[in-house]
Amino acid sequence: MFNVGIIGCGHIAEQMAETVRDTEGVTLYAVASRDRAKAEAFGKKWRAEKCYGSYDDLFNDENVSLVYIATITSLHKDHMIAALKAGKPVLCEKSFTVNRAEAEKVFALAKEKNLYVAEAIWTRYMPSRTLINSIIDSGTIGRVTSITANLGYTISKKPRIEHPEMGGGAMLDISVYPINFALMALKDGKIREIGGLCVKNALGADIRETMDAITEDGVAISMFTDTETLSDRKGIIYGTEGRIEVDNVNNPLKIEVFTYEGRVVTKKEEHNLKHASTGFEYELLEAVEAIREGRTESRSMPWQTTLDVLSLMDSYRALWGVRLGSECREGRLS
User: What one-character-per-residue DSSP string does 160-191 give?
Assistant: First the structure.
């Protein structure tokens, strides 16, 4: 049996616990929280064998096969390093770290230890990614010329969003989804130029932002995110012969394809997708397979891709002077 250990007992951890329950050959072996009572309540609900009031105790449990990290972003780097030093493979929630410099330290240690580590941004692992790329590759919409994407939730008052030192703001929590949506459609093509604006809260966290980019191939990208409103969450990939509309860049379950004939728009295809569990099963199963095969990287979200996404997010934040996590203490963007 493949034993999963979860640190952090919030909403995202609940999603993974449900996924583990629904996945054959995998069991929720251990959970950990800094509050032991919280860990025990979580463990009782999801029937974990072990409940710890210390993350290190879980890392040092020899029966844990994989550590899933569901703590706040500002703590990801330290928690991953501690798990890797204890010899544990890691699947860490997005955003992987606060910035690229932190991620480089994690990957260097994983390489040294020959251990699997990957960013758990679920859209990278979903079947929708393959479907969207296959539509683009088919030539149905012609050459891709521009991409739009947005995401908005009413989450601005949540501590993890409100406080910069916790890795707060829109960028690391929700902007990461439109950015990944666009880059996946471009097959991670290179960005030539960026621009954008943001609104900060009184504490200095970015709560709303517009993000523009131009690729080396001349594709125009326009994105916005907002932590104070519900948006339509739509992503659209425009081409010379048609477009692909995706209902939700955070969880694509409906994909529509339209083609152009002069000024007439025709709906050509509609795809409705459904997950077997929560949608986290794809990243979990890929991690299990990679670890059993002795691989250190995810095929869906390799280390370089995580670094490229973080570099882009670092660049946007540098435009706006937004400092998060350890950067707040250092007084600079790392």
Answer: HHH-GGGT-SHIIIIIHHHHHHHHHHTTSPPE
Domains assigned to the chain:
2-123+279-301 (3.40.50.720), 127-274 (3.30.360.10)
Q: Nearest 5°: CA angle at 198, between 192 and 204? A: 125
Question: Which residue reads 């996946």 in tokens?
Answer: 184
What's this model's pTM, rounded to 2 decimal places? Answer: 0.96
Written as one letter, the residue type at 188 is: D
- Provide DSSP, 314-331: HHHHHHHT---THHHHHT
Neighbour count for residue 134 (Cβ, 10 Å): 10
pLDDT for 84-104, tens place per residue?
A: 999 999 999 999 999 999 999
Closest CA to 192 of 175, 176, 223, 213: 213
CA angle 311, 316, 317 (to 5 degrees): 95
What is the pairing mode between strands 235-239 and 144-152?
Answer: antiparallel
DSSP β-ladder status, 220-226 and 235-239: unpaired
Structural tokens at position 258: 């339209």
Q: Which single residue is written with the structure tokens 């010379």?
A: 240
3: β partners: 27
